[in-house]
Amino acid sequence: MAVLNDDVNWDSWPVEDYLAENYRELHPSDAAVITHHCAFYRGFAPGAVARSVEIGAGPNLYPLILASAASRHIDAVEAGASNAAYLERQLNGAPDRSWLPFHALCRDLNPDVPETLEGSLSAVRLVHGDLRSVEPGGYGLASMHFVAEGATEDFEEFKEFCRWFVRCAAPGGHLVAAFMENMPTYRIGAESRWPGCPVDTDAITEVFTPLTDRLTVGRIPSDPTLPDYGDSGMVLLTGVAAARPPV
Questions:
Q1: Which of 17, 39, 228, 237 is deepest in the core (most CB within 10 A)?
Q2: β-pairing, 74-78 with 169-181?
Q3: pTM for this structure?
Q4: Residue 80 in contact with residue 55, Cβ under 8 Å?
Q5: pLDDT tens readout for residues 66-116
Q6: Contacts of 241 (CB under 8 A, 6+ apart)
Q7: Please, what are the domains in the chain?
Q8: Which residues are listed as membrane-spanning (predicted)?
Q9: First and final CA of the chain: distance in angstroms?
Q10: Residue 175 DSSP label
């Protein structure tokens, strides 16, 4: 039987292992995501987006840094207790210095990113909840990174999460996302096992085409500097929420 999202204890997400494996240094794949997303965000004037949302924010700060170039207010939606606690510390104290290279690259590629890491995070508010609790149509921009395909083993539930993601944005609102490509069920650290739903550019295109306008889908190849989770790279997406997406 496929593992579904509600079968998983997300409160026990291994934050320190995940950061050590993925974000204590800036890896080439994340630099490529940042480069792609900065081109997207340079299409906005500073503060042009009144409210944006990061779905399943986790302990990854660089999507929040990217959004700070265009957003006056950013909701970081996170369901897991351990991830939420980490975000709370980062937002209300001194952020980990390991995020400075990420901030520097974001600002080099988009000077509208606030001058300091703390400044980039100042517009962020933690919202403790999951994708299904987000107000439909409440945001001018919705962002999601490595969430829907890592929250379930069931493709139908993956598609449902993608529909919910698009519904977070108002009709005509902007979308930007990244997915692990062909991600199987995987481990973080020595013990923990987490669901994966393998998707690729064709699957992402199929799912999002009826939900969006101006859809672009691309990919980044596998990064040998990261742990071998069994994926084959990353899929990148931008688009606009359709005026009347299917329910």
A1: 237
A2: unpaired
A3: 0.96
A4: no
A5: 999 999 999 999 999 999 999 999 999 999 999 999 999 999 999 999 999
A6: 142, 166, 167, 169, 170, 171, 172, 173, 174, 175, 211, 212, 213
A7: 5-241 (3.40.50.150)
A8: none
A9: 26
A10: E
And the tokens for 187? 């481990």
**Could you give the CA distance from residue 59 to residue 23 in angstroms, rounded to a whole number?**
9
User: What are 71's strand-pairing partners?
Assistant: 49
What SS3 class is residue 112? coil
**Which residue carries 């990148």 as its tokens?**
236
- The three-class DSSP label of residue 139 is strand
Q: Which amino acid is present at 128?
A: H
The distance of Cα 2 from the centroid of its chain, to the nearest Å, equals 23
Convert the pLDDT of each residue in 187-210 to its tens digit: 998 778 999 999 999 999 999 999
Residue 24: CB atoms within 10 A of its CB come to 12
Q: Tell me 233's DSSP state.
A: E
